[in-house]
Amino acid sequence: MNPEQLVEAMQPDVDRFVRDNPLISLARTGDVGTDHFKRLLLAEFQCQEAELTTYALLVARHRHEKPTALFSFLLHTIATARGLLREAAPSVGITDGDIPAVPADEGMFRVVRDLTWMGMHAGPAEAALYLHTDLSTWCTLFSRIIDSTQHMSDAPRPVITYMESWGDKPPPEVAEGTLEVLQYGLSRGEEPDRLLHTARQLGSLIDPYWTYVAGT
Fold it and tell me: Does the chain have fewer CB atoms within 10 Å around its N or its C terminus?
């Protein structure tokens, strides 16, 4: 498989990860409140703690200019997003002291723990396909959540602004960089089957993350 085919092969999984998201379902029935947005911000803070370490490790381990450019861009993107999260936090009653270093929720603890695996063990193409799938899923989910909360007059605007900042699909730097890193990794012997297998493990993070946010 070539890079374009690998990305295309993951699209059904992205669609599946987005389908029937519990927070979207709650928003459509008008049952989303401040507590949901608060848990969303807490979940984002805690995942980004792990992601900052993961991307830094990927840069350190894969120092060729192709993977380094992609993973450095993602590292910068997360760092920028943290600023919007901090701006949004007061709108849902969060202070820095409200963010535990270790997630108290068991499902979220597993999510944060599993996010670190990529930085320590994944090959460059393996990490790139996983991260592209992750970002494709999150951009789509945030876009759908925004659409589903348009009728809510009390939706905290700073949280909506944070979600809007991700757009509805990965930026060109990620879309193009992923293809370049996939080609780089494949040329160095990474196996397409392993790349797809690892990318599909995102599903094991989706459920506990959104179960926590939805409070179900």
Answer: C
Give the model confidence (pLDDT) of 138-151 as tens digits.
999 999 999 888 87
Cβ-proximal residues to 71 (8 Å cutoff; 6+ apart), any chain: 55, 58, 59, 62, 127
Dist. CA 141–CA 25, nearest whole Å: 12
Q: How far is CA 215 from CA 20, 30, 44, 63, 204, in A?
A: 15, 15, 15, 41, 18
Distance (Å, whole) CA 110 – CA 178: 26
Check if the beta carbon of residue 6 is closer than 8 Å to that of residue 182: yes
Report whether 174 contacts 74 (CB < 8 A).
yes
Q: pTM score, two decimals? A: 0.94
Q: What is the pLDDT of residues 171-209, one digit of tens each?
A: 999 999 999 999 999 999 999 999 999 999 998 889 999
